[in-house]
């Protein structure tokens, strides 16, 4: 496999992180909205904090996983580009989307919400389970 994008070029370009920060924040917010809307919905129905987190993750886990895999697959097509900037952009997006999909939304957000308990809803008041 002789891809030009994996050869040494003398360094990394400083442009991709600046270009990708707003894009990756937007992806993260999309997945965050999918998950938290469902968790809040179950919490308002009277489920406990941990039950609503588990049910919300169970209902949106497939959607978030499919969206992340589709996004990573779409950017995988740009990875073997002959332009180093495009290769770096696609690698960063693929890595960030997969980390956000599986680690952040699948593990870290539910774990943090489980630890915080009632503080998740602080300005609002939720019904008592």
The string of secondary-structure elements, in order, is: HHH
Which percent range fits the helix content? over 70%
Question: Stretches where pLDDT falls below 50 for ≥5 residues?
Answer: none
Structural class given helices, strands, pairing?
mainly alpha
Strand content: under 5%
Description:
With 129 residues, this protein is mainly α. The protein has helices at 15-44, 49-76, 84-116. Helix 1 (15-44) runs antiparallel to helix 2 (49-76) and helix 1 (15-44) packs parallel to helix 3 (84-116). The termini are far apart.
Which features does this protein show?
single chain; 129 residues; mainly alpha; 3 helices; 71% helix
Q: What is the topological layout?
A:
Elements lengths: L14 H30 L4 H28 L7 H33 L13
Helix pairs in contact: 1-2, 1-3, 2-3
In short:
The protein is mainly α and 129 residues long.
